[in-house]
Amino acid sequence: MFADASLHTDDLAAFVAASPTSLHAGEELAARLRAAGFEELDPRRPWPAVAGRRFVRRGGSVVAWVAPEELDDEAGFRIVGTHTDSPTFKIKPGAPIRSAGWVQAGVEIYGGPLINSWLDRDLGVAGQLATVDGATHLVRTGPVARIPQLAIHLDRSANEKLTLDKQSATQPVLGVEVAVDLLAHLAGIAGVEPSDVVAHDLVLFDTQRPALIGLEGEFLASGRLDNLACTHAGLAAIESVRPGGDVAVFVAFDHEEVGSATTTGAGGPVLQDVLDRIAAGYGLGLDQTRAMLARSSCISADTGHLVHPNYPGHHDPVNRPLPNQGPLLKLNANQRYATDAVGAAIWHRACAEAGVPTQPFVSNNAVPCGSTIGPITATRLGITTVDVGVGLLSMHSARELCGVKDPWYLARAVEAYWQGA
């Protein structure tokens, strides 16, 4: 755990820069966990033991845990869940688009990005290539693409009402004429023959690095804070956790931005499989495992909204979170967030133990909120779940904004929860 918010923010910025895609985030999480003494287990093989500091990885998802040598009769799982993916644009298969002498990549929208925020930015391409032998290769470029906006001289109404067609207005330019071959370029980075590449999972990312802004450097401006800010907080906390009576579990899912219904998303089996195998590693049968789950809880950590000074009417008139005043406790009567009074009490105990402030977040009744992995995890496992997270301005923008203290506060509260608060 970092001693102050400044050190935490510097490391968060490095984590974001290393993670242009969920797959890269999974790779970075695995590398950092290994460096912190966690042993990687192969989900395709039997596990010789489950106690200690261990993790498994599947694509862009990672599950890590710290477990005692022996379980007592009252032990449960203390779970913190986040996600590694962010809204972006995914490269379509097939030939590039050629229009008016330009060469463009064909893309489709992934999740719900603020499309206008991606205009006129220096974009890279990152993800994985699959070759005919079944191997996968992580790749990333520098700035190679741009989604250009139409000049004001050619669209005099742009400042009054900007309407972007999701097909024709979002295709990034890569170059001109016939000199551009994106897949050949990426194959060269991966060190494979272009003819051996049979499939890919590639997305655009903003290449601008995270930066401190504000008169006193009190804000962090960065891409992919949703939800790498909470993922990094969970990572920083689990690295410091000591084995206790309960099993501390950190899970970073993929595909939250598109509904979580995948093999590595919260709607899939990845977390339950690991929990069942941990229980089995202690020799627990079905009834004992279900009893252990009934003694368990989960903190779902995802970003939320700070009150917007230009649009305060879009927020609840009473609950108006501000930056650097603590992570959010997210509530919704229609269970778009899983928080109830029992879960809220768990969160308040953790914050009090860590000496961390917290702020309630409730939506304006006329502005429905999004959702998180929280309700999905609660439904799949039947355990008490509370939704919390770092507050942002400009959520789902290519470049979001948070207070520099809030991710550090979240990490401290999560560590206190894992240590028994």
Automatic annotation (TrEMBL):
GO terms for molecular function: aminopeptidase activity; metallopeptidase activity; zinc ion binding. Coiled coil: none annotated. Keywords: Aminopeptidase, Hydrolase, Metal-binding, Metalloprotease, Protease, Zinc. GO terms for cellular component: cytoplasm. GO terms for biological process: proteolysis. InterPro entries: Peptidase_M18, Peptidase_M18_dom2. It comes from the Bacteria. Its EC number is 3.4.11.-. It is an enzyme of class 3 (hydrolase). Its cofactor is Zn(2+). Belongs to the peptidase M18 family. This is M18 family aminopeptidase.
